[in-house]
Amino acid sequence: MNGRGDxxxxxxxxxxxxxxxSNLGDRERMLGTARADIEALPGTRxxxxxxxxxxxxxxxxEQPSYLNQMLAVATTLTPHSLLDALLEIERRAxxxxxxxxxxxxxxxxxxxxxGEVEIDxxxxxxxxxELRNRDFWQRELGEIEASxxxxxxxxxxxxxxxxxxxx
Length: 167
Ligand code: A4P
Ligand code: MG
Prior knowledge:
The protein is of the alpha+beta class. Helix content is 26%, strand content 28%. The protein has helices at 27-39, 79-92, 135-150; strands at 9-22, 44-49, 53-55, 66-77, 108-114, 119-120, 125-126.
């Protein structure tokens, strides 16, 4: 771990849950690159990964189906620094930000939880308000919490399942 000792990080590690989503381009590769980029962030390591699920798109416009995956990470980055880092990873994945929410994207990285912290400011809402509405996030969260409890190692590469379990 490489803590930085500045305002972007704190001394202690927090477990955060990050949801990945992709429905444009080579979706599997997008998730793989995102995992590698997250693992390379300062003071951050991946502890567990859910399976990759194929889900029906939720949103106002017709768009391709998503691949979704949830990660548990241990990080010393503050919530806002983690958000900045994830936005940069999205940008590098070719994400074009539309004015309308919930449209197709190469990569989306959302912070679902950050320890027990609650935030609601102009940049960040944690826990993510959609957690209660998305069955697939709740399933993935339950899966990686169980995996953390069992002490299993992160096996992100082998976790692909093609699924139409939907939302
Ligand atoms: N922001 C606030 N809270 C958070 C948070 N906890 N994590 C702000 C990440 N970002 C957060 O995001 C807009 C702004 O939200 C960010 O700049 C940050 O300051 P965005 O990525 O530009 O917009 P968005 O993703 O379209 O909107 P939003 O509200 O983040 O939506 P979601 O929840 O990300 O939904 N269907 C399926 N099947 N699977 C999906 O993964 N995802 C979405 C996007 C829609 N439909 C989907 C899926
Ligand atoms: Mg988002």
